[in-house]
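Build the 3D complex.
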Amino acid sequence: MLVLTIFIAYSVSFILIKLMPMDAVEYIVSQYITSPAAQYQDPEVINSLKEGLYDIFGLRGSLFDQYKSFLVRLLRFDFGPSITAFPTSVSELLRNAIPWTVGLLSVTTVFSWIIGNILGVFVGYTKMQSGMARILFAIALVLRPMPYYILALVLIFLLVYLVPIFPLPGTGGVITYEFSLEVVKSIVYRFSLPALSLVTINIFGWWFLSSYSLTLNIINEDYYHYGELRGLKKSTLMRRYVLKNILLPQVTTLGLSLGGIFGGSLITESIFALPGLGTLLYRSIMTGDIMTSLGVLSLSIIAVSLATFILDIIYPFIDPRVRIR
Amino acid sequence: MTVGGWLKAILRPLALNTKLGVGFLILAILVAIGLTSLTAPPWFEQWYKYPKDLPPQLSSDPSYLLGTTTNGRSVFWSLTRGILNSLAISFITALIASHIGLLVGIVAGLKGGTIDRILMTVTDVFIVIPAFPLYALLAMMLKKVLNIVILGMLIAITSWCWPARQVRAIVLSLREREFMLTATLSGLKTWEIIFKEIMIHLLGWHMVNFTNTVIYSIGSEVGLAIFGLSILDKDTLGTMIYWAQGYGALYRGMWWWILTPIIAVIILFLSLFLISIGLTEYLSRKR
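Done.
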């Protein structure tokens, strides 16, 4: 199933790229020649680039040959040299960018999952109709349809411009792979606002509302009333009746959203000028570096399919009703 | 049904559900604001026709109401035209995507078996494909020919799959109901069943899907625009943000430039979302 999904997804990408009225190679080269980086390059280099591109896009031979070489390239994760940073290969650029993106997204996803669920269960369990609950719902109503990057822009306005707590995007210290106190400090300083924006939108866009309605469903069930009438302690009810039943669907969705750790915050990263896949994608778009964009796309496809696959495997361990056949 | 009857049928849900009513009201106001762009001076799309960097001011000329930009444009006219263009893009997406979804969902739900399995596998794959990197890649290649219609079609590529799944689920539950059996036994053809029996039940959910796709499309356009992949020579809410970002509007204290499109997007989302959940509430109560 995993292989099938990835295979079809790649095939769809191939068909779509083929359907485009533009010749990708000519487009890339024309973009590249006008960019400032090209002025220091030999025409020969550009020519070899062009040859390489024809190779990579598999534009030689019949349509079937093209398709085959396209697939092989993608599966071996060989996208050739990047155009933006010429001799460096695309896969190396990706390798350098991945830790930042994965770090930011896995931390924020898990954080927002925990906070959102606690908040949702709490509000649902206490059947709060208080002002606090109303405010939370009002926030959720505004944030639910909002893409994460809009909130990021709003937070930049509020917390960088109006109340300057966080640094301007692109400033606030250098971030490298070296480990020193300076670097750690600037990482925390620069990553906290983007992390805050992602956590907020995840909590109110999804986890809070879903765990709230799940809780409401459970405490209206007959078995819950029975447990109450049996005189079970509140904490037991909470642990064995509510949390256990909420965990199942919520873990599923957590797994699915962890599949988005490669592609889930691309725009945030580029807005905040953080190192990572988003900024890499942004730069590759600006220079017409299609190969790098293709690399980011492939990574995201693999990550999401992998998450679905792993989820299928671990599901029987969480849910006793599902048995492996 | 007479015109009055139709009007009543449309207006009744609006009156019954507050969220739906409020959502429609806000949307109507936004569209009205957008429509004022038709009275804009013909040169409003050109650069350097207005004095640069003016903050908002009250004047008899609406051009200066929301200030001007560094490239000499009126924020007010950009906004009004931007609302219209963003809505146009998202309507094209929603028209295509929600109807593909409707078709796929009905066919998969009614036919069942192998056809259902094939269609759902394809749908699931499209759900898995990460939309934004894909759009970015395709928009890059289409940059020179990008216009409102093409951008709308582009965003429709993956946005039909959620409607398809939802429609299929509803059709599956409808299929088990008794009236379907009655219809089949009384010799109705498949397309007659679809149009006479199923459509009525699906219409409301189709509208919900349509609204959700509009929300999704507006959001995607803004996302693409931040990466410089929207129609940069036209005003949309996304390209307004792009230019404001590109000129560093915020860092130079020109809050009116960057904040105007952001607030407009948020209000637009809110109104559409209210319509969507209002419709859902109305439909589930009616059932």
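The first helix of chain B runs from residue 3 to 16.
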